[in-house]
Amino acid sequence: MIAFAPTVARLKAAGFLSVDGLLEMVGLSDAPRADPALFVVPERSSAQPNKMSGVIDQKVSETFSVVVIVKGARRGETVSDLLKVHCDAVVDALVGWTHPEASRACEYAGERLVSMDGPQVAWAVSFNASRHIRKESQ
What we know:
There is one protein chain. This protein has helices at residues 5-13, 22-26, 79-94, and strands at 19-21, 37-47, 55-71, 107-117, 120-136. By secondary structure, the protein is of the alpha+beta class. Strands 1-2-3-5-4 form a five-stranded mixed β-sheet. A hairpin with a 2-residue loop joins strand 4 and strand 5 (120-136). The longest helix has 16 residues, at 79-94. The radius of gyration is 17 Å and the shape is elongated.
């Protein structure tokens, strides 16, 4: 899996004040105070078979999400539009950016509802990145 810190730093540089990783998200005992609160979460990793002899060189595809947690609003307010604004800003910050451990730029992979819990909505914006594992055979 790729490290969270560079993605967290990238999102903070894009203007998000509250960005953390998976362990901070699962460690929450109360709803996040920040609005929005972002969490970088790994989803899956898959590798292609090695095609060389004597050297291991495998392409690894990484999928991760940025979970955007937004507090609800009273009727007549624009919470749905606010969720879109935040998600668009996440996409803008990460699409085309190359994680330091990746061999290619991040690509958009879709979005989905994570949860609607009380007064907040959690929405995941997913991305793909790829890297290579290179190692001499032993």
